[in-house]
Write a structure and sequence with these properties.
The structure is a single chain. With 251 residues, the protein is of the alpha+beta class. The protein contains 4 helices and 10 strands. Strands 1, 2, 5, 6, 7, 8, 9 and 10 form an 8-stranded mixed sheet that branches. Strands 3-4 form a two-stranded antiparallel ribbon. The longest helix has 17 residues.
């Protein structure tokens, strides 16, 4: 594998048919390639490997989220070498090609969010938990996925760190009006009071088996959130707070 590189797709309209896998999307030509690659990885990991229904993988948060996809340069054989069966000498050498293959993805969902879940998966009005006062806006990292053959190489950590670093450098990115950033579908009134600005708080709803991956990047389990089930998989809430790099407004 060559040196991986990471692509970013900022929030954009996505004409995605949630009932179909990436390879069968009818509007694929009008969908950003980065998102198609993100969904290819997500489909492989969540749908094929974890048996999550295809129709549940794409949701209303995808168009308003930022997505990162990490690629690896993989050398693939196009035509195998041909050897003389008598002497073993190569008659025609192997032909190969290096291609960029999507191997991992993560998304960052802006505030606002649905209320925190509680033990056993019942959603209630937003409430204080161990690391969240129930009011402060936070951004949520999720849909973290790495294809099986590339796990154990720090790929997930690279994706998490890239998303965190980007948000630290763009702390006001999701601050505009509800209509501009898709808040209205969660019930916020246009023209109403905007929520306080983001101040460095990250959240993730981590699969229980992936807690250590997030802990390595500084996230801590929010014990007050308990454990709940999503798509038949146990999840826990985790939070991380970072310092943000506020833009300086010229006087």
């Amino acid at each position: 594998m060559g040196t991986p590189f990471i692509a970013l797709l900022e929030p954009t309209e996505l004409p995605w048919d949630k009932a179909l896998p990436p390879s069968e999307q009818p509007n694929v030509a009008s969908i950003p390639r980065t998102f198609v690659d993100a969904m290819t990885v997500r489909s492989q990991v969540f749908v094929q490997e974890q048996n999550i229904p295809q129709a549940n993988e794409f949701d209303s948060d995808d168009p308003r989220s930022a997505h990162w996809v990490i690629y690896a340069s993989v050398n693939q054989t196009i035509t195998p070498a041909v050897t003389d069966p008598t002497t073993g000498q190569i008659i025609r050498p192997r032909q190969s090609s290096t291609q960029s293959v999507p191997i991992g993805t993560v998304r960052l969902v802006p505030f606002p969010h649905p209320p925190h879940p509680v033990q056993d998966g019942v959603y209630v009005d937003d409430r204080p938990t161990t690391f969240h006062d129930g009011i402060e806006p936070y951004v949520k990292l999720g849909r973290l996925a790495v294809t099986p053959e590339f796990r154990g190489r720090g790929i997930a950590g690279q994706l998490i760190c890239t998303a965190i670093d980007w948000m630290r450098k763009h702390p006001s990115y999701f601050d505009p009006s509800p209509a501009e950033r898709g808040f209205s579908h969660l019930g916020m009134e246009q023209g109403g009071a905007l929520p306080p600005r983001w101040n460095g708080l990250f959240c993730c709803h981590a699969q229980a088996d992936a807690v250590k991956v997030w802990e390595k990047r500084g996230f801590r389990v929010d014990e007050a959130m308990g454990t709940w089930m999503e798509e038949g998989i146990p999840h826990v809430g985790m939070f991380l707070r970072v310092d943000v790099e506020r833009e300086v407004t010229p006087v």
